[in-house]
Amino acid sequence: MGLDVYISRYEDYEATNKRKRDREKASERLWMSICGDGSYQSIPEYKKEAYRAELKKVDDALGLIDGDDPTEERIELPSTKFPDHCFKIGYFRSSYNEGGYNHVARNHGLLELDDIFAHRGEEYACVHDWNKSRERAVRALEAMKARSDKIGNLVVLRQDALPIRPDSCPTSEAAAMDIVESEFGEKNAGGFKAYSNDRGLFYREACYKLRAVIPGVSEGNFRGPVVYLVVEGDEPALTWYIQATEIVIETIDYILAQKDPEKYRMCWSG
Q1: Does residue 56 surpass a pLDDT of 90?
Q2: Could you give the CA distance from residue 131 to residue 129 in angstroms, rounded to a whole number?
Q3: CA–CA separation, 39 vs 219, rounded Å?
Q4: What is the rounded average pLDDT for all residues in the chain?
Q5: pTM (2 decimals)?
Q6: What is the DSSP secondary-structure string of 9-61?
Q7: CB–CB of 245/146 below 8 Å?
Q8: Half-sphere exposure of 126 (CA within 13 A, CB side)
Q9: How far apart are CA 143 and CA 261, in angstroms?
Q10: 163-201 pLDDT, tens per residue?
């Protein structure tokens, strides 16, 4: 789960949007008239085939292909700087976990993707001021690099101190070691190198050096005791996020280089 941001070029966004809305209404009408309101599994296959055939006629009449407008062009190209990065020219992602771009940026007091593009929950496909967005993206990159110079390879990991299953939490060093032996045993061989579950945080390989253990209290709706682990990795902690921000700038530059940047929209899905 997370925030997915796509860039698409629309020849005529309003016309495309209308055709898709008309298709959605026709789809609902056809489904009820042909298949009824029973569960999908209970509907005979011949009715589903009849529905798909009629929907194909709607697509043909609207100039759509399986519900997609052929005049809409999704932009998703590998970065020229970081081709293996999961951010692409035209596609960004921010997971909802603690490693997501927005979460990390927020924790360090930096601009999130929404801030860079001045997105405040408008419609799904938005027109943005690409020049101003680029200015903000450059500022975000500079601030992130400055923050990276300050924190270096240090990363803060949070572990809730309140056990999810109090009845099975360890009450001694030996019991804690039993959990570690269980997690690192043969049944988990070949699994993730690092992961978390209701028993704790586990690192099958020594990917961090522990630098500090700090007790604290979590913020938000579920306030409770937590332990912050300050660890040191093998590279600057913000490297991946700096690269991602550079790809954001690369994306904006790609759009500005086109003859019709006003036809490009950012689609926010999350």
Answers
A1: yes
A2: 6
A3: 42
A4: 89
A5: 0.80
A6: EESSHHHHHHHHHHHHHHHHHHHHHHTTTS-GGGS-HHHHHHHHHHHHHHHHH
A7: no
A8: 16
A9: 27
A10: 666 677 888 999 889 988 888 876 665 566 777 777 888
